Amino acid sequence: MPRAESQILRHSAAAAFPLRRWLRAPWDYFAMACGLLFWLIVGTLIAVISLPLLVILPAAVARKVGRRVLHHTFKVFVFYLKATDLVHADLRSLDSLKHQKKPVIIAPNHTSLWDAVFVISKLPEPICIMKKAILTNPVLGGGARLAGYIPNGASAGMVRAASNALSQSGQLLLFPEGTRTRRFARWINPLKGGCALISRQAGVPVRPVFIRSNTRFTEKGWPLWKRPDFPIKLSIELGDEIFPAEGESAHEFTRRLEELYERNLSRAHKLRRQVVREG
User: Fold this and answer.
1) What is the CA radius of gyration of the chain?
2) Cα dihedral sign for 162, 167, 168, 171?
3) What confidence score (pLDDT) does residue 111 get?
4) Residues near 62 by Cβ (< 8 Å), separated by ≥ 6?
5) Exposure winner among 88, 138, 184, 216, fewest CB in 10 A?
6) 10-residue averages of pLDDT along the chain (279 residues)
7) Nearest 10 degrees: CA dihedral of 92, 106, 170, 156?
């Protein structure tokens, strides 16, 4: 292709992108508003029905009901995101988890607020470790309390509760970073030790999950009013099981996990995390 023609094509593509973004802005804002309304209405309904169910049902039955309700709610929301062209998500690698019966820790890196939504939409009855603030939230906390989700408070109590839950079989969803990846982190935040401690105490493997996206929407430090470039592209890749080695300390296992995430997330990929410069 002649150089002049190539320059014209590049210029046209660059000019078309902001135009396309501007033209779809009304739809994006409408779809985002409807998504927030969905959570306000559905979250409130789940919170209302959770209170009597926690009193009426045996604890084990209540947890099962709560986990199923959240799984199907998140599944509907993921369908909504795809149907409205807000998100193009490749979640196929998680399909194998539907049929896995043995206890396991599902451990994704934490790119944004809705990571748990995508993962739980593929897990029929997950156990989830989440922030105590969410469990006490009047709209979002009702379903989480019904499902028996575990607060990430005191380390010893969290490890004990998670190990007990895994001993009854199940899939524990835990974000080993402890919070969303910070804005200026290259690949991930330094990992917390909870994942390694639970894995050792419960005697279960860790399955890393590698989440990549073409945006930093709802990451740590992203203003809620700031619209990203839609559609958001999202890839979720399930890693192989990994066990603590014999004689390996929790600190050493955590460091090995951290190196695994860094190695995988840094490899060439169309959705590889882009650098954000400080200042």
Assistant:
1) 20
2) positive
3) 92
4) 53, 54, 146, 148
5) 138
6) 38 50 86 93 93 92 93 96 94 88 93 92 89 82 91 83 86 93 91 93 95 88 80 94 92 96 95 77
7) -170
Ordered by where they begin, the domains of the chain are 28-265 (3.40.1130)
What contacts 232, CB < 8 A, 6 or more positions away? 86, 87, 88, 213, 214, 215, 217
CB–CB of 70/173 below 8 Å? no
Task: Give the helix ranges, DSSP H, for 24-154.
Answer: 25-56, 59-83, 115-120, 132-135, 141-146
Query: Rounded CA gap, 93 and 100, in Å?
Result: 13
Is the distance from CB of 159 to CB of 105 less than 8 angstroms? no
Which pLDDT belongs to residue 154?
A: 64
> Using CA atoms, how far apart are residues 1 and 19, in angstroms rounded to an integer?
26
Return d(Cα 251, Cα 193) in angstroms, integer: 7
Q: Could you tell me if 234 and 203 are in contact, meaning their C-beta atoms sit under 8 angstroms apart?
A: no
DSSP-derived pairing of the beta strands 232-238 and 206-213: antiparallel
Name the pairing type of β-strands 126-130 and 171-173.
parallel
Tell me the C-alpha distance between 125 and 116, whole Å. Answer: 13
Predicted TM-score of the model (pTM): 0.87
CB distance 142 to 51 below 8 Å = yes
CB half-sphere exposure, 44, CA atoms < 13 A: 5
Residue 31 burial (10 A CB sphere; 0-12, 13-18, 19+): middle
